[in-house]
Every structure is written in structure tokens, then in C-alpha cells.
């Protein structure tokens, strides 16, 4: 994430980032496989949040199935 990010709501340039994992639909939902990863960019001023899709690995998905 670039340091040039600006909040579209309050125009603050201060932010935090975090990563979340979610399930999709179908079999991944039934087996609770969190095969969709996102990076969240959170404005420190107003808490506006944007999500950006990340990539997942096959090994990570297999490991998630068995845990």
C-alpha cells in the first residue's frame, strides 16, 4: 500500500492496514474454508475502511480444510 493513500471521506492520510480471510460459497462455505483473503485499509481519523483482494495459496487452502 502506498503512503499516498487519502481517505475519500475525510481526506486524512493516516491509515492502518490489516488482513482478513473469508469463506466463499458452495463447498468452501460448507467446510468453512477461508479461501478468500483481503487487505483492509482503515482510516485512523474516521475509520472508513476499504478492502483489496489478495491472493491465496493452494497449500494454505488445504491446511485450512484440515484445521
From TrEMBL:
It comes from the Bacteria. InterPro entries: DUF2082_NA-bd_Znr. This is GTP-binding protein. It comes from Thalassotalea marina.
Amino acid at each position: 500500500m502506498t503512503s499516498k493513500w487519502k481517505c475519500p471521506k475525510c481526506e486524512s492520510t493516516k491509515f492502518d492496514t490489516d488482513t482478513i480471510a473469508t469463506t466463499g460459497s458452495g463447498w468452501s462455505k460448507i467446510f468453512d474454508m477461508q479461501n478468500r483473503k483481503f487487505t483492509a485499509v482503515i482510516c485512523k481519523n474516521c475509520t472508513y475502511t476499504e478492502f483489496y483482494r489478495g491472493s491465496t495459496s493452494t497449500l494454505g487452502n488445504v491446511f485450512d480444510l484440515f484445521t
